[in-house]
Each structure stands twice: as C-alpha cells, then as structure tokens.
Amino acid sequence: xxxTIEQSLDELLKDAANYEKRTESEHRELLSQCEKALKLAxxxxxxxxxxxxxxxxGYHHIGLHEYKEALDVFLQEEKIRRQIxxxxxxxxxxxxxxxxxxxxxxxxxxxxxxxxxMQKFETLSDEGLYRSYSNIGxxxxxIGNYAESLNYGLxxxxxxxKIGDRDKIAHSYNAVGSVYRKAGDFERALEFxxxxxxxxxxxxxxxxxGIAFGSIGIDYHxxxxxxxxxxxxxxSKRIFEEIDHTYNLSMAQLMMAVNYEAxxxxxxxxxxxxxxxxxxxxxGNLSVESSVLTNRANLLFQRGEKEEALHLLRxxxxxxxxxxxxxxxxxxxxxxxxxxxxFGDSESALSAFxxxxxxxxxxxxxESSRKIRNLQLAFELEQGRREMELEKQxxxxxxxxxxxxxxxxRLKTELLGIAAHDLKxxxxxxxxxxxxxxxxxxDLTVQDYAKRIRTSSERMLEMITLLLQDAAIxxxxxxxxxxxxxxxxxxxxxxxxxxxxxxxxxxxxETHIQPNCIIQADRQYVFQILxxxxxxxxxxxxxxxxxxxxxxxxxxxxxxxxxxxxxGLTDEDKAKLFGKFQRLSARPTGNESSTGLGLAIVxxxxxxxxxxxxxxxxxxxxxxxxxxxxxxxxxxx
Length: 637
Fold this sequence. Notes:
There is one protein chain. The chain is an alpha+beta fold. The protein contains 25 helices and 7 strands. Helix 5 (87-103) packs parallel to helix 7 and helix 13 (246-262) packs antiparallel against helix 14 (266-283). The N and C termini lie far apart (88 Å).
C-alpha cells in the first residue's frame, strides 16, 4: 500500500520539483498538484509525503512572491520533519524558513534561523553549509556590514572549493566581488568578478557568464573606464540574447546606454535606451523601465527637446509610483523642476519642487529609520550570534567572546557615524532650496514655508553634527589641542552670548566668576561644555526665573557650576542623566528642540580633559545645579 502511495505522490510532484523559471499560471497549476499530493499523504498518514508536498508548495509560493504563505507552509514542513527525526531534512526546512523571513525583510529572524540551520549543516552537509554561508553574507551586505559579509562570502567560497562545485565557486567569486564594490574597492571587485567570469566560461554556464560580464561592466563604470564598461555590457547583452533572458537583457542594454551617454555618444545611447525599454516592458522590469525613461528624458532635455522630455518624465513618474520606486520618483521630480523652468512655467516648477521636497523628506525619514533599525539589527545579530556560540563554548573561550562583543559595539558606533554622515546630503539640498525660495519667491506664504523648512533642516543638522561628534569620541578619533585657557574669560563670553536668549524669556543671568582661572584644555571643546550647560538652564527654566553661573578656584581644581530654578530632577532622571538619547521628565519651556545627546557628549568631553561632571537637585520643580571640575593648571595631565 505504501509503495502505491509513494508512486502516486511521485507522479503528482514530478513537475512540481522544477520550480525555477515558471510563469504565474504554471506556478498556480503546480500548487494545485501539491495540494492533491498533500491530501493524499494526509489521508494515508504518510509523513514523508506530507513534508515533501509542503516543501514544493512553499517553493511555488516563493515563485509567486507570496512570502507569508510560503513561511506558513515551511513552518508546517519543519514540524513534520522533527516528527520524522531526519536531522538533515530539519536543517533544509530551517533554511527554507530563513529564506521566507529574508523575502519578508525580517532580517533578524532570517539570520537567527540561518544560524540554526548552519549549525546542523556543519556536521551533515557541505552543500547546505555553502547555502547558509552565502545567505548570511547577503544579510550582512544588506545591513551594510561589509566586513562580516566578506567573511561569510569567503567561507562559502572555501566550501565550494572543498566540494569541487565550479558553478558554486563562480557564484561565490561574483558575490565576494559585489561586496568589495559595495565597500568602494573597485579593483578588488573587478578581480573577483573576472575570476567568476573565467570559471563560468570553463563550466559553460551561459547565465553565469552573462551575470559576470554585467558585474564587470558595473565595476568599470564605477571606475569611469567607460569604454571597457561598454564592452563588458555588450558581452552581457549578447549572452542574454542567446539564452532569451529578457529581464537580464534589459539591464545589460541599460548599462550599454548609460556608458554610451558617458562617452558622449548620444544617438547610440538613445538607441539602447529604446531597446532596453522594449525588453523591460516585455519582462515586467519596472525599475529598468522607469530608469530608461528618466535617462532618455534627461538626454533629450539637454538637447533642447523639452516637450518630448516632459512626456517621458510623466510616463516615468507613473511607472515609478506604480512600483513604489521612491528614489526614482525623487530624481524625476527634480528633473521636472528644470524642464518646467525651461518652459517658463514657474507654477508647475514650484509644484514639482513641492512634490520633490515632500518625497525627499519622506525618504529622508524612512532612510533615517532604516539605518537606525539596521544599526540596531546589526548589534542584535552580533549579540544573538554570540549567545548561540556561548552555548557551545567552554569557560576558557569566554575572554575571546567578550572581545568579539566589544568589536560589535565598536562596529555599531562606526555604523552610526557613517549613517549620520550620509544623512547630511539630503539636508544640504533642502537647506539650499529653502534659501533659494526665500530669495526668489515674493509670495509671503511660500516664504513662511521656506523659513519653516530651513528651521527644521537646521535642527536636524544639529542632531547629525552631534551624532558624528559622539561617534568620533567613542572611536577615539578626537585629538585635544591643549593650551592654557582663561576659563574666567570664556565663561563671560558664553554668558554674554546667551544673555539675549534668556532675556527673551524674561530670565536673568547672575554671574559669580572668580577672575584669572587658568586650565590646560582645548578651548573649542570647553566652550561647547559651557554653552551646553548654560543653554540647557535657559531652555528648561520657565519665564522670569534666575540662572546663576559660578566659577571658583579650589586647591587642585577649578569648579564651574550652573544653577537654575527650573523643573528639577527626579531620581529616575538622575539615573539616566548622562545617557545617550535619554528623555528626562523636564521639557523645554519655549518650544526649543532637544537631541538627547548633548549631556552625553558634554560628559565625554569633560572626561577627555580628566575632569568630572555631576548634577544635584532636591527633586521635581526644585531646580537643579550642574557642576564641572577641571584640574587646575598646576595639576593638569
């Protein structure tokens, strides 16, 4: 009876096993076959058959981009595999679950399950281990951790070489090359992509050859070696024409057009833009279709063909919005501004600019959130991975693991600095356009909007500056320019600088500054310490309150203090006072902004000067006093 069921299941699933390069209708038909097989296996309590049918069903859901359904099915398969007790198939089921999480962009879950599968594959299957290493490398490159991505890419390459699978070796070379390109090392990227090409040619895998040529073309383009980039793109195009792979063909033709345009060969560029557009439409490659229309429009606009350029941009915008390609839409709106200006249509130009600004703000916020999520994810992944490793390690290895965790913290700080640095670019655009509108547009309402844009941008720029400074301090990249500093004079300067702000809130500042207090310090950073504490007292004090500033010389230290009559500090506030991104109970009293980083950076700067900082308060609404002590010049470090 069991043999008959096996035969029947094999018959039902024989076509379902081939799930790659299927059309939507074929996927649907094969899903139906999988359902029949699943019912047959369930009716006869044939666990192996149920697991097999579920696996193939999941594959076809992936082919249809139905990732939640695929995850559901793979989780069912894993449960059955555990009932059967086959460790290798459990590992394969886990790997499929991780793939589904990856497609759903749940990178943390994907990484954890890949690690679990990887641990099983280590003693069961080199082929499975190769897949785990490759996909873990993909996650690391997606979150911008190129070092770990390269690490796992090279591990995958080593396994591919061990099992002698030349096609996998070629794939690994290509993946490693892509990591180097993402990291900006184009020479190394080219080296590995060339190795991938050579091996793919030896194996005779036409698709791998076409992909390798495409990768080499991108490398050359990034290196501004446009003629060589063009030749590689042409070879990629030729291969994909031969194997009738229209999706990849459209990308190869787009790269040819882009390189022709870089070489100032406009007619050739326009021809290949047109060819790329045909194949993009045929294969449903909306990203290429939008890019082609935008690039053609820009080229025609440069040639003075404004009407056709505008027509193409409208079509490109429609496609980009349909495919939710926000970065494409942003580029299109920006080009539309210039085209409408060339027509003398200032109203449409302003409308396009407003769309550009709103979308850039949306992308900026999404990008900020994404980078922060990725930074947090990178840290959590490192923590999670180390927790899994700790379970397998003996006490003798704990020191090594702690060192690795410190490295993960360093990486998190470095990535945070990179993220903050990258966020400056859109701000410069926003500030520039705000200034331009304020200069060129006479409409008072528009000018008011422009002022608000400028104010918001300046606040964000302050946050980014503090993020970059915090990252630099944490990484030990700040060098103090030490000199003798008259702290008394510096206090007077800072107080006078902020006196007008205090008066605007009807506050008064009293000073009790001992003259000629000299310290050995970096004047710039001491100025930042003083102004942060004084500005905070103004910011968090109600109107008509007094702020007192003290500077006194003691035996071995100089003590600076700022006392206010503001909202005070609770016990909870005191516990997290100098932490990063901490929100205390007090709120600004005049609608001022707060980054949550100021006091943390002040503490770091004070400690760089071998000083000490603390705060005292009797409680909520009873004011607070912040103290800073610096070594006197005789006792300076």
